[in-house]
Amino acid sequence: MNKTDNSSPSQRLEKAMIAAGLNDPQLASALNTTKQTIFKLRHGKTSLSSHWAKRISAVLNVSPSYLMGIDQPTTTKESISQGTESALIPEYDCSLKNINTSNWVIPLEYIKSFTNSSSLIILKVEGDSMEPDYYSGEKVLVDLSKNIPSPPGIYAIWDGYTVILKRLEIILSSDPTVVKISSINPAYSSYNKKLDEITIKGRVIGKWVWK
Q1: Phi/psi zone of residue 120: left (φ > 0), alpha (ψ -120 to 50 degrees), beta?
Q2: What's the CA gap between 31 and 66, in Å, rounded?
Q3: 58 and 132 share a domain?
Q4: Does 72 map to a domain?
Q5: Domain HTH cro/C1-type, which positions (predicted)?
Q6: N or C: which end of the chain has fewer CB within 10 A?
Q7: Residue 158 burial by CB count (10 A; 0-12/13-18/19+): exposed, middle or buried?
């Protein structure tokens, strides 16, 4: 059974960039444009026109119509042996390279109350800044559609080199909007940044624990 992908063009662009292993500066370089332009397209601040869809699709190896929200991707839902509908969730490491070509098969009943499964990825944690809640090597479920840190929570952010987990909280009444970025491990200090200076990949909505 095929699952309809209701992602917006900006969300589809985000997923296609992750699948291709490209960040904003890298895609901008390939298209001879600025990283600010890609940022605006990826966050829906600039509409993804047919002109941009054609240029970007040639780099990301997807169809222009898919990026614009017309076509559907390959099947993202299947029936497992018991007939339970499940979502196929891709797995990535902290460099946003796909490291599990077989994907994770997760029953929809486990995740349907959280979000649309088409915007989910599995991310492998690296580093110790979020211990003891998140240890290096653990797998977390990230919702790529959640890139505004409200309410406060644990988010996956791009630090210019890799994706890291941090707790983000908007500082009330700040103008322009400022976000407090903190770790759980007390060995790491918190710091503040303007919201438009942070590349938020998504919100962490779950973690796999084996006992």
Answers
A1: beta
A2: 19
A3: no
A4: no
A5: 13-67
A6: C
A7: middle
Whether pTM > 0.70 for this model: the answer is no
Cα 41 to its chain centre, rounded Å, is 15
Same domain, 59 and 109: no
CATH number at residue 194: 2.10.109.10
pLDDT tens-digit series, residues 77-121: 333 334 456 777 778 777 765 555 456 777 777 776 666 667 788
27: left (phi over 0), alpha (psi -120 to 50) or beta: alpha
CATH of the domain at 62: 1.10.260.40
Q: 103 near 90, Cβ under 8 Å?
A: yes
Gap between the Cα atoms of 27 and 41, Å rounded:
12
Tokens of 45: 């601040």
The phi, psi pair for 110, rounded to 5°, reads: -75, -25
Rg (CA), the chain: 17
What sign does the dihedral 109-113-119-125 (CA atoms) show?
A: negative
pLDDT tens by residue, 149-184: 999 999 999 888 889 999 999 999 999 999 999 999
